[in-house]
């Protein structure tokens, strides 16, 4: 059956600011992503997908509605095409579970990391290592956007202004983490039914990310990609997130991101929960539906 799909990969921008309007540059970026996703959805649904706002004309009669993230804007776009939007969590639920404070509260976090809701807390967290780089991430960002690397002892005026602005807008707050050497990025995905039960679950996926965090590609993890303890930690984090999402009233696709890293002493470590994505991700179709590995143009 044909899926009329809203590829609102910029959903976090809408969730952080209801006045958000997509730029021409973002429309072009979304159209490029649709070309990559089209064959994946064709395989999953057994029919050619119809991308809302990208494909011409009207969707085929009887098309089912779906969205990267079922924000109010995405649901309005489907309704305007004559397609019934999918059952969706409330907007405040979507905002809460995609907010970085949600994942940070489930833990664990990197050593010295924390979520700050004021400038003083940012300064307190980074005071332990003022001469090393720290990664600051706004609460509702995606694919490497809405983040900044700073060295606290050398903050310039622009960085201070950016930090201060983060406390009054953009979802309010910053995830503050030491910048570490990431050696392997992985994710794990599932889907919650409306009653909170786990309706789908996939296998671990290896991600390719650019240095600034932008997603580039995904493939199903092999037996040798993760150690037994790493898999156990990833599974435990996945279970905590699934339970917490259900408790918040969320239903739909979700995924967690994790990574292997090297600490200052050269030891290998594993961080099992760096992000919670309460929406689709490109890795979702690889991990849950067995889509072939793919890579985006950088």
The structural class is alpha+beta
How would you describe the shape?
globular
Largest sheet: 7 strands, antiparallel
| Percent helix range | 25-40%
Strand content: 25-35%
Helix/strand layout:
Elements: E1 3-6, H1 11-16, H2 24-45, E2 50-51, E3 64-67, H3 72-80, H4 91-98, H5 100-106, E4 114-116, H6 119-126, E5 134-137, E6 147-150, H7 157-166, E7 174-178, E8 181-192, E9 198-201, E10 205-209, E11 215-220, H8 228-248, E12 252-262, E13 268-277, H9 282-289, E14 294-295
Parallel strand pairs: 1-2, 1-3
Antiparallel strand pairs: 4-7, 5-6, 5-7, 8-9, 8-10, 8-12, 10-11, 11-14, 12-13
Structure, described:
- This protein is α+β, with helices and mostly antiparallel strands and 298 residues long.
- The chain folds into three domains: 3-88, no CATH class; 111-178, Dna Ligase, domain 1 (2-Layer Sandwich); 181-295, D-amino Acid Aminotransferase, Chain A, domain 1.
- Helix content is 33%, strand content 26%.
- It contains nine helices and 14 strands.
- Strands 8, 9, 10, 11, 12, 13 and 14 form a seven-stranded antiparallel β-sheet that branches. A four-stranded antiparallel β-sheet has the order 4-7-5-6, with helices on both faces. The protein has a three-stranded parallel β-sheet with strand order 2-1-3, with helices on both faces.
- The chain is globular and about 60 Å long.
- The protein starts with a strand and ends with a strand.
Fill in the keyword field for this structure:
14 strands; alpha+beta; globular; Dna Ligase, domain 1; 298 residues; 7-stranded antiparallel beta sheet; 3 domains; 26% strand
């Amino acid at each position: 059956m044909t899926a009329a799909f809203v590829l609102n990969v910029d959903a976090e921008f809408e969730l952080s600011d209801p006045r958000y309007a997509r730029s021409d540059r973002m429309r072009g970026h979304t159209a490029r992503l649709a070309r990559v996703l089209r064959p994946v959805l064709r395989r999953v649904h057994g029919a050619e997908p119809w991308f809302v706002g990208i494909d011409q004309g009207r969707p085929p009669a009887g098309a089912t509605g779906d969205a990267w993230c079922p924000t109010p804007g995405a649901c309005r776009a489907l309704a305007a095409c004559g397609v019934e939007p999918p059952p969706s969590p409330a907007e405040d639920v979507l905002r809460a579970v995609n907010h970085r404070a949600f994942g940070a509260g489930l833990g664990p976090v990197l050593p010295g990391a924390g979520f700050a809701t004021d400038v003083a807390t940012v300064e307190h967290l980074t005071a332990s290592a003022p001469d090393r780089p720290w990664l600051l991430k706004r609460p509702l960002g995606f694919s490497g956007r809405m983040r900044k690397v700073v060295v606290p002892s050398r903050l310039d005026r622009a960085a201070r202004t950016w930090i201060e602005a983060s406390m009054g807008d953009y979802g309010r707050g910053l995830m503050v983490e030491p910048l570490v050497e990431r050696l392997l990025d992985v994710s794990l995905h599932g889907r919650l039914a409306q009653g909170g039960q786990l309706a789908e679950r996939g296998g671990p996926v290896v991600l390719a990310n650019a240095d600034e965090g932008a997603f580039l590609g995904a493939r199903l993890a092999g037996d040798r990609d993760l150690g037994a303890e790493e898999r156990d930690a990833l599974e435990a984090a996945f279970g905590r997130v699934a339970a917490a999402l259900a408790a918040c009233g969320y239903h739909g696709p979700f995924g967690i991101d994790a990574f292997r890293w090297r600490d200052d002493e050269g030891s290998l470590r594993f961080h099992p929960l760096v992000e919670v994505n309460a929406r689709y991700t490109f890795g979702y179709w690889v991990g849950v539906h067995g889509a072939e590995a793919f890579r985006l143009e950088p």
